[in-house]
Amino acid sequence: MKKHRFFINTKIDNQDEIVVTEENIIHQMKDVLRLRTGDPVILLDGEGKEYHGLIKILIKKESIISKEIIKDNVFSPLKKITLASAMIKKDKYEWVLQKGTEIGVSCFTPVITDRTEKVNLNMDRADKIIREASEQSERGSLPIIGVPQDLESFIKSCNTKIICFTQDANQFDALKYKDVGEIAILVGPEGGFSEKDLDIMKKNNVECVSLGNQVLRAETAAILSPALFLLPR
């Protein structure tokens, strides 16, 4: 039987039983997945540990899991990637959150650029998408998602190297970044970065690189660019 995975906020200590009271998890266990007493589950603490156990009690407001095995999670991203992709249409940006989580993005920062039309984000829904994608892809830790920022604010507040993927730039060379363990990636909106955006990046010494001559959709570029760093070679 498949072991379903759940990130929980409850602190997991050395106790033999784990009491889960988070209503959304209880609802998912009981009403969505139709789990029952004796079914195996995996609880995750968000810090890389997996707690394997069996459901001992599952009622409306509480689930008790008998803890059996503790393991280190095996899904560890190769690099720490911050994906600062421009805000795009709701369903497309949510797709970026889901797929970015699956491939191992560590942090998402929605960026407001000169051509950005959508400037707000439902943070509760974004968190839900990231959590479910993490559980599905068997991650041991949850990516962080920040609140939307304008382009210049993001660049000035970022403490790591930033590269920007845009069409009119030198070809991306993966070997150049082979030993870089942490990096932030900027990806533009529908229609690409404006001259105003490019001027901001130039003044702040952001390195621009190209994925090639083909024109990619914003959401495609937002997944392809971190994948170049994260997927095994």
Structural features, described:
- This protein is of the alpha/beta class.
- It has 2 domains: 4-72, Ribosomal Protein L25, Chain P, CATH 2.40.240; 80-230, SPOUT methyltransferase, trefoil knot domain (Alpha/beta knot, 3-Layer(aba) Sandwich).
- The protein contains 6 helices and 13 strands.
- The strands form 3 sheets. A 6-stranded parallel sheet has the order 9-7-6-12-11-13.
- β3 and β4 form a beta hairpin.
- The longest helix has 14 residues, at 90-103.
- The radius of gyration is 20 Å and the shape is elongated.
- It starts with a strand and ends with a helix.
- The mean pLDDT is 88.
Summed up, the domain count is: 2
Question: Could you state the order of secondary-structure elements as H and E?
Answer: EEHEEEEHEEHEEHEEHEH
pLDDT < 50 runs, ≥5 residues: none
Termini separation: 32 Å
The fold-level CATH name of the largest domain is: Alpha/beta knot
Helix fraction bin: 25-40%
Which class do the helix and strand fractions yield? alpha/beta
Question: What is the C-alpha radius of gyration, as a whole number of Å?
Answer: 20 Å
